[in-house]
């Protein structure tokens, strides 16, 4: 039988979440990218999950079962064991606490060679059970998240970073943004793409830009993203400060690449971020970026090269960074070129890079687990 180092792998992912946000999109991208490399991929999720339809539409085999609660755990683990045994899977990759406990327990019962837990978030981990006893190894979306888990007790040799990929925008987009908003020819557009949530720093961004916009009538701010009640609150704030004709709230948009192509600067004042690949998406579109040095953002933005990072909570610093880019077109151009080179030429955040790195890590960990199992067998034989 071929070893796991010279054959395609059989991989099944599990996810308990019902929505279809960044984490679920990353899972789908990873499954498709690994399939492109010749591996077999399947999914375990809830029947009502949006990821079920997305994966099915992508031609991925999906197993469904209820998750959450003690009874679903007790009933579901044997079902997962059966799925994994019948499928002869090499790897189970879990993504949330609930499915890690349920599918992970089933995988332990099935004797699955490698159980991996991926940590997507930067929030404090309340229970380490889903990172220590259940999985054999842990992957993270940034080195920042990796270091956080190591500080909490996960051995460094059991956790590796695998960056989330971006979809590169076309290089020849003729943006319709400025025509849509009826902007003057000399307009300088600052763009922010993020779900409307307090921790994303939309209020702070507006506070930093407000005095700059008062003295620079050509500056416009475009906010892309939805989320109540902050959408309505920001609308009221923008009306109150008299900038409704200069700050444009577009809500959720499917044409983010079109909006980035029509902008001059990308800015996101997030106060908490596990990775922040949206900065890389903006860089790929040729935009200089302004961000806050929190979480994994410094792994996405090269301070002074592809953009400018400021300390958390530093509104004057954020304002100064924006002012520097607003007033220096040459600097915007240099940082835009550097960002495009980082995002497009290096492959660090590409789909192919994700799949290559994932396969490399899986194969290494499988070899280590096989060696451990062989060592145990040898001791028992003696």
Describe the structure.
This protein is α/β, with parallel strands linked by helices and 382 residues long. The chain is 45% helix and 16% strand. It has helices at residues 22-36, 50-57, 70-87, 97-110, 143-152, 177-181, 202-215, 230-240, 256-261, 277-284, 315-327, 329-345, 351-381, and strands at 10-15, 40-45, 61-64, 91-94, 114-119, 137-140, 159-161, 188-193, 219-224, 247-251, 265-268, 289-292, 307-310. A seven-stranded parallel sheet has the order 3-2-1-4-5-6-7, with helices on both faces. Strand 2 (40-45), helix 2 (50-57) and strand 3 form a beta-alpha-beta unit. Helix 1 (22-36) crosses helix 13 (351-381) and helix 7 packs across helix 11. The two termini are 26 Å apart. The mean pLDDT is 94.
Q: How is the main sheet built?
A: 7 strands, parallel
Can you give the helix content as a percent range?
40-55%
Which sequence of strands runs across the widest sheet?
3-2-1-4-5-6-7
- Strand share of the residues? 15-25%
Beginning-to-end CA distance, first to last residue: 26 Å
Radius of gyration: 23 Å
Count of extended strands: 13
Order of helices and strands: EHEHEHEHEEHEHEHEHEHEHEEHHH
Number of alpha- plus pi-helical segments: 13
Low-confidence stretches: none
* Shape estimate: elongated
The SS-based structural class is: alpha/beta
Mean pLDDT: 94
